[in-house]
Amino acid sequence: MRTAYNVETVRAAERELMARLPEGALMQRAAAGLAAACADLLGRVYGRRVVLLVGSGDNGGDALYAGARLARRGAGVAAVLLAPERAHPAGLAALRRAGGRAVGVEGAERLIEQADLLLDGIVGIGGKGGLRPDAARLAEAAERSRAAVVAVDLPSGVDADTGEVRGAAVRADLTVTLGTHKPGLLIDPAREYAGSVRLVDIGLSLPPQAELEALQHADVRRLLPVPGGESDKYRRGVVGIAAGSARYPGAAVLAVYGALRGGAGAVRYVGPAADAVIARFPETLVSDRGPKHAGRVQAWVVGPGAGDDASAVGEVLASEVPVLVDADGLRLADRDAVRARTAPTLMTPHAGEAAALLGVPREEVEGARLASARELAGRYGATVLLKGSTTLVADAGGGAVRVNPTGTAWLATAGSGDVLSGLAGSLLASGLSALDAGSVGAYLHGLAGRFAADGAPVGAHDVAEAVPAAWRDVTDA
Ligand SMILES: NC(=O)C1=CN([C@@H]2O[C@H](COP(=O)(O)OP(=O)(O)OC[C@H]3O[C@@H](n4cnc5c(N)ncnc54)[C@H](OP(=O)(O)O)[C@@H]3O)[C@@H](O)[C@H]2O)[C@@H](O)CC1
Ligand SMILES: [K+]
């Protein structure tokens, strides 16, 4: 499991560690990791032009010490100081001793333009709000330069805790993050500014509960349902799909397709698209009597392509099994009915649907995904899977939010969400918690999307078709 901690926790861990170590030891660990990453990126250090962008905090100190190490290996190193009188004094002295030089912001553009590598030490976890004008100009010059850009701890200008970006920010090719990942490095829009991320261990001891976690293959393998020798289809779980309408029969077909790939022993379909479903998947149990009279299931999926059928949503929410609510179901679900449920509820909005539920513009949700997912989970007393470029899954009771690492832009295709709801609903029926079903579903769905796309456009049915390959990839690893 990859974990990310917020600034407050990082600060506390740093204080505790610094109290036990000689002064400056942590910064030396950071600088050693940074210099090694820069050297890897440059290939050859000797004779290369390195420019440090240096703010007045310890983030700039890290950059200065790393620059000193590169200068000792023969790089030509120049530091651009945003506030010359406040730059880290010991770091600056170390750089000068190693043969590096320091300049002010005037004339920096030319240096930046000619550099092979830029090290962004403008601001780290001490940053507040958008970059100030001088710093913003350096970030813009860095973007125009052909140099490789390495961010110290995080790209300057992005919010470490939330992933929000207000105004200019440095666009890095590589971010060398110190001690732990920060949430912003894993969540869009900030994630896109970070480039690839390398973690340097500086020995922090962090608490068991992270702010954010990202599953990896081994975690998913542990969570996937495996039928035992005693299993029959009922013990493996039956998932009920209440979806589709005369207008949107395809949503029902795709949700059933996802559900058949998700590990449940049987899929029961309820709704007006039974003929279309049976024609494609004869193994489906179909019923036209409404969710309440459809027979036992271990979990329901309601909403994909449902149009305005509020009664099916109401009947499903009144059941005592886990329920996944998606698409039209989100609009039709009564908030009090969701809050009153005792069995788990998993809501799966995209940003537009989440914005409608929260009563805010869509851009607000896209700019502040973590806060939006938590807020929605709290309001509905439900687990919320917020779909998008970085899918998040948040429980109502707080705890670490899961961020999905497998997504791909190719998944932004019609019907892809219907497949995900069937898949995650099937995992719910197999007995996974709402948090696990949502995050494992998103993981497999993202991986399947990558396999199906392989660099070319795909349709939602291709994604469903590739889920077994994703499952095997996880279990064979
Ligand atoms: N502590 C440790 O053990 C270790 C810490 N480490 C490193 O320290 C970093 C944290 O250092 P930090 O606390 O000094 O804060 P930092 O990120 O440099 O920012 C403060 C400076 O930025 C400025 N500033 C603020 N907002 C701004 C804006 N919008 N636009 C422009 N400027 C802005 C602010 O200015 P001021 O408000 O004071 O005028 C102040 O000068 C951390 O990320 C890691 O790299 C590692 O060495 C490992 C050991
Ligand atoms: K930085």
UniProtKB/TrEMBL annotation:
Binding-site list for (6S)-NADPHX: 58-62, 124-130, 153, 251, 305, 350, 418
The gene coding this protein: nnrE
EC number: 4.2.1.136, 5.1.99.6
Domain YjeF C-terminal: 216-474
Organism: Streptomyces pseudovenezuelae
Protein name (database record): Bifunctional NAD(P)H-hydrate repair enzyme
Binding site for K(+): N59, D120, S156
Keyword ATP-binding: yes
UniProt xrefs under InterPro entries: CARKD (IPR000631), Nnr (IPR030677), Ribokinase-like (IPR029056), YjeF_N_dom (IPR004443), YjeF_N_dom_sf (IPR036652)
Keyword line: ATP-binding, Isomerase, Lyase, Metal-binding, Multifunctional enzyme, NAD, NADP, Nucleotide-binding, Potassium
Binding-site list for AMP: K387, G388, S389, T390, T391, G417
